Every structure is written in C-alpha cells, then in structure tokens.
Task: structure prediction
Amino acid sequence: MPETWANQEIDLHLELAGPRVRAGLETALRDAVQAGRLRPGARLPATRALAADLGIARNTVADAYGQLVAEGWLTARTGSGTWVTQHPVPARGAPGSHQPDITHPRYDLRPGVPDLSAFPRRAWLAAERKALSVARDHVLGYPDPRGLPQLRLALADYLARARGVTVSPSRVVVCAGFAQGLALLGQVLRARGATTIATESCGHPGHRLIAEAHGLGLISLPVDAGGAVPDGLSAGGLSTGGRSAAADAVLLTPAHQFPLGVTLRPQRRRAIVEWAVDTGGLVIEDDYDGEFRYDRQPVGAMQALAPEHVVYAGTASKSLMPGLRLGWLVLPAPLVDEVVAAKEATGGLTGSLDQLTLAEFISSGGYDRQIRHARLAYRRRRDRLVAALRLQVPHARVTGIAAGLHALVELAGPDSEDDVTARAARHGLAVEGLGHYRAAGQYAPALVIGYARPPEHGFTTALARLCAVLTGAPP
Amino acid sequence: MPETWANQEIDLHLELAGPRVRAGLETALRDAVQAGRLRPGARLPATRALAADLGIARNTVADAYGQLVAEGWLTARTGSGTWVTQHPVPARGAPGSHQPDITHPRYDLRPGVPDLSAFPRRAWLAAERKALSVARDHVLGYPDPRGLPQLRLALADYLARARGVTVSPSRVVVCAGFAQGLALLGQVLRARGATTIATESCGHPGHRLIAEAHGLGLISLPVDAGGAVPDGLSAGGLSTGGRSAAADAVLLTPAHQFPLGVTLRPQRRRAIVEWAVDTGGLVIEDDYDGEFRYDRQPVGAMQALAPEHVVYAGTASKSLMPGLRLGWLVLPAPLVDEVVAAKEATGGLTGSLDQLTLAEFISSGGYDRQIRHARLAYRRRRDRLVAALRLQVPHARVTGIAAGLHALVELAGPDSEDDVTARAARHGLAVEGLGHYRAAGQYAPALVIGYARPPEHGFTTALARLCAVLTGAPP
Result:
C-alpha cells in the first residue's frame, strides 16, 4: 500500500509516548481538518499504515479515527477506508442551553446545566433494565400523548410529597422539558384568544422567544428582593372596582427566581393568585430547581394555592440531565385536553423507554437518592464559592437565597460584565453576565455563576480562576 | 396488626400453588378494583399480613402490589401502605395508533404496529450500555436540535446504503417519529406561504389532520394499481405551455402505498419529480416500511431522483417500535435551518439516550440484523396469510405487492366492512376496514390486515379467526 502518512505531508506535532498518544492524535487530526490542511474528501491512511508510520498500536489509531467519525469530522465506510467528511457538521449550541459557539471551554461556570458527570449512568441503566423486564409488550406501542400512566402516577406521588403540588395523575402531562411545556401552553393560550404574557424582566431569553413564536406579546414585571412585582399584571387596579388585566398569563420562577436567585414573597404569591382568580389569567410556575434549597425545607409549590389557576412545571433537566428532555406539567383540569391536543398536533411525543425508566427510578427511590446527593454536593460548592469570594474578592457580593444551581455575583469593581467575561474567556473559563438575561429595567452588573456545572474534579480550579479573574490577577 | 385480608371480606378465588400465585393474586386484585369490590381510597392489607393470611411469600404479595401500582390501580406511599387509587387513569389510545377505545383485544390484526414482542430488549439495553460507557459528559447536556451528530452520521450511512438516499449528516434532522416530521414540514410550508398539500386519497387520516392543523388545505390524488395518479398536482398541464400548481406540496408513500399496498410506477415518480422541479413544489416521501420488501430488492428511495425537491422521511416505528418515537427527515439543503427552527420553537426535542443507543445499534450492525429477522418473520406471515385465504376464503383477494407489514384483503362477499369488523370484534379479533383510511373516491370494500402485529405465538390463532370470520363460520 503506497499510501502512508508521510505522503500526506502533514506535520502532526505528536506527543508519541504515554497515555496521551490517542488524545494527541485525535487533536492533531481534528486541527488538521478544521484548519483545512486535510481537505474534505481526502482519504486518510489505513489504520495499519498510519500505526506503522508512527510506531504506535493500530487500535490507538482506530480509536482516534472512531472518535472523529463520531464527531462528524471523518466518515468511515466498511471496506473502503476513512475520509474527511464532505460537509462537516459544525458544532452548534442548543437553544436555551446558553452555549455560545465557542467549543467546550476548559472550565465552565455558566448557569443552566447541572454537573453532567454526576448523572447516575449505572443506576439509570439498572432502572431501565428493571422497567423493561416487567413492561408488557403493548407499552412499546404508540404511547399515550399525555405520558405513560406509570410515569404520571410516579410523578403525581413525587410532586405531592416533595413539592406540595396538588395533583392527580390525570392532571399530569409529560413533555420534552420545560421548553416544550411552555410552547404547548403558548399554543393553547393563543387558541383561547390570549394576546399577552407577562414575564420577569430578568429571565431566560429562550422562554421569551418561545412565547413570541406562538404569537404572544410580552410585558415585563420588575424583579426586586421580594421577587417579581405583580402590579403590572392589572391595568385597572383595585381602586377602580374591577380589574382589567394587562396580561392574559404570567410566567414566574417563584421558588428561586432565575437568574436573580430571590424567592417570591408570600404576599406577592397571594396577590398573583388573586389576580388569576379575578381575571381568569393563568399563572405558569416554572419550578426548574425547586428541590435544591439548602437553608431549610424547600418552599412548597405556589400551585397549591390555586390549582385551577396555576400550571406547575417541573423538569429532570437539573435533577438528572438536560439530554433526557423530560419535563412535566400539572394542569388545571380544563386545560388538560387542550394541551394534549396541541401536543398531538405537533407530534412531539416523548419516547417510552425514558418514561418507563424515570417512573421506575422515582418509584424505587433512586430519584430521591440522586437529588439528596446532588443537593449535598451543590450546597458544598455554593458554600465554597461564597467563602472564596468573601476571602479573595471582598468587593464581589453574592446575592439571592442559598438554593439552586447558580448564584448571582455582583461586580462592585470598575469592570463591566463584558470586561470580566472576556478576561475569563482568555483564561479558559466561561462565565455569563446578567445582561444576557435582562429584558427590561436596570440591574447592578453581575455574573450568573452556575457552580453546579463543572465536574467535581474541576470545581476547585474553576473557582480559583473565577477569583483570579475577578481580582484582576493572572490566574 | 388487626388488619388482615379476611377483614376485607373479599373472595379472591386464588389459585394458591405453583408459579401462577403472583399472576393469580394480581388478577384477583385487579378484578376486585375494576368491579368496585375494592373501592377507591380503600387501604390494602400490609404485604406481611396478606402473605401470612394466604400462606405465601411476602415478596409475591409485594410484587403483585407493585405491578398494580405500575398499572395505576393502586397507590403506594412509603411508610403508610397501599391504597386503591382515587382516580384511576383510564386506558386510552394514542393518536395515529389506530387503537379504538376497546381495551386490548385478544387478537389484533390492525395495521400500523409491528410485532412488539420482537423488540430486541436485551440487544437494545446492551447497545445503550455500550453507548453510555463511551459517551462524554457533554453529550448529556442540551442536545443539538437537529439530532446528535453520532446518530445523524449513522443514519446517513445507513440510508445511503440500505435505501439509496442521497444524504449527508448535515441534511438529516432527527424527529419524534414521522408525525413530528410532518408537523414541522407543515409549519415550514405554511410559513413559506404554502396553502395546499396533496395527499393520496386513501391514506393515514392522522397525517391529513396534522396538515390541516398547520393551516394547509388538502387535495386528494386518486390511487390505482400504479400508485398515486399525479395529474391533479398541476392545474394547467403541459399542453398550456407552463404549469400552474394546484398544490404546493405532495405527501406520498411511493415504495409501498399505505394502505393499498401498491408501488408508485417509475414514470409517475419521474412525473412527480418533474412537477416539483417545474413548480418549486415539495415532495414528502413517507418511507415508513421501505426496508420490508419480500419479492426482490427494495425499491430505492424516490428522493435520490431529486434530493433538492424531495424530503425523505423514515422511522424506527416499524423496524423497532413506535414507543421509541424516533424518526428522521433527509431535507433539501435550504429547508434544514427552517425545520430546525420550527423544532426549536415547539420545544419537541428527542432525548439523547435513545439517540445514542440507536446510533450504536446501527453502527454495530444490530439494526440491520433486527430488520433481517423481522423481514423473514413478516414474509412468512404474509405467505401464510395468502395461502390460508386462498384455501379457506377463495372469494377474498389479497392485493398489493409482497412487502411491508400489512396486506389489503378485498371482500368479494356480500358483507360490508362494518359487518366483518363487528363480527370479528365479537370473536375477540380486531380488524380494520379500508374505509377508515379513505378520504375521497371509491374503493372496493376491503380489510387492511396488519399481519405483523400479533406476537409470533398468537399469529396462528389470529389467522384462523380471520378466516373463520371471513367465511362466516363461527371461529
């Protein structure tokens, strides 16, 4: 075979000893493709030939090729070799994942994603094996669009117990994360004639986009230390005798405001529920991290105050992983059929295996165990974040309650959010400014620190880099 | 503990010996709940007490309770016992699953669902374990809305090889079965100003509903022995020099028309592609069972004739199981971003675990193996169906090509479709008449027999009952 690596005239700068050979080869090949030194359609040397050229094991070459095939840079056809992919798939962030286009930073403290290395792969597989071992065949057919009965039952039990939700399985609709839940509600609200939804003036930009994509206009509620200020919901006000609503619905994060980290005050909860009862408005309670409260027992769901006026929305994205795309709505009875019909019309049904597995995982106690572990781990990380900042960056102030997977770090120094995020990026640390979430109003410059995100072994360094970046010292 | 089973004064008629103890207990309890002998809210005896009463192992009781909790009849709370569920979830058919409200018939020959007992549970779990063992953590984060790169690569390779599709991974969008794929296309077509879609005059009613739900008007193409007649697509016609399109898009099942079972003639394929090129119309090729052809090599995808004008749509619903909710579109390049944007707006993303597993299952050859097994099994069943009918019901004629998971059985006798389906239902056999699928035009009365659906051990009896029902003899 005349084709050897030397023929390609590519300088690989390989570190050819020790356990890093494969990683080095992978990186060198990936760089060569990205830089265009290996052009689309170019054929790579056979694994045997390259291994001989480089004096390394053939399996090492095959593994590196395999990884790059999996990433889409290379294409392999059995019997005819390996090629540089003609139209490589560029890396791209998912919506709402807060991932910019930079490829995986070395350290990542952006919010919205839990520690993915803590996903209990083994326990999940065991639960799936158990669930599949008892599932009857018909469960593998076209699934109930509301979600499998097993899962709705397990969720109803769990939500009543852990979050104080007023719920029966017939009120639960399983969805592909909160994004789909919100999209379905947007569709139903629009079909009912709704025109306007109120959102917190600082919040998830993806949620505002979804509401707009379904034809709803947005108004913003300011957020202060007591959570969202509900005055803007009613155009009239009590003094005029009756209220005329400025919004048809309101989207809130009552347990732990995202991203400001405050809790909605009890009197405001009541005022918002009263608004809903008086005007027929709908409250959407996004309880994305309600299980994670560290100072005392979690605040129960606002939904229990008025189950016929509040939609409770939960998700496995923070408690397990976003890749599951599993969330749930607990709906006022009259909305159930409309939401299910909207789900059927979009065809966005969730697969049965994940549903069966989550039902088993909840029923067997595995889900509670996972949350207990994560709560402990994240609480420690938050304590370490607060302590490190107090010691090393006294001018930075951590605000919000001791809860959830993120904290707000106010920048009292001269730097803007952009200054800090740019400086961090130069040091391999991804952080996000509060500005990314602001729809209206003014807030003190701050970073939204997702302390839950790094793997456990990377948290110490990530935290050290954050402190260094905030003090201006080279990390 | 004063509470024993005897206190409940319920006669269980239990068969208390041998391996059927648990099943017997389950059935007895289920019947008691269904019949109202155990009322909603009633507390069941503790497993220990009931086991002692009945002289059986406590685990047996716990297993039976667990099964009924999973089915929704009972509710368990840790530490406080087991109760009859207050609001049991009634069984309900999924959209497009062709399931009427009758609960699981004893024998089922309705089309649209493969043999669910043949889903390779063990191989699937093994593939998932392998995929999870090598997946990097970031794969568990928010997934790429186009589908995971691994899966798009595996699908591109498979579809090029097995179905002759012209494809690169960047043209593939993973979706939750064909229903979601069609809904996304409907949304994109509507946003582009399309008003009308042509469908086959006999076809899946759920697909017509999805198109209408997205604001598209329907026109029907007649179907004859050569497949859909494309004349209706062009309002003008060639003689007038230019064509003015009557439809903006057309939805077809070219490889194996559903439900009539014919193949689209080559000259019609070409005519439809020419229509698309001339008018800018879009062809949607629903290749729901293209892998299953028994007389010769499968006909390649129509998409390859004009990849920029034809959307190829495939699914794992027939090759694996509908519960996976996994399908794929191969799109003309300009449509990719619009379809992905529509998918993001609806939030209907597919979970990563099923995607990783399918990618591994395809790459390892497991998917091909599964299809080979199923093809052989279904081919035998079709042969047996044809032979049995020829022998026992000579007036019934099987039409359509030797392919797929269903056959059309024309009723030449005096009975209407409704007569036959009603008679079959009385004998525990579910069948479906062609009328269920007819949107326009006249077709000879027929049954659409889904011979793939029963489990292997139930096929012989299902077939015998079908023959008996068709001859009018008591089965």
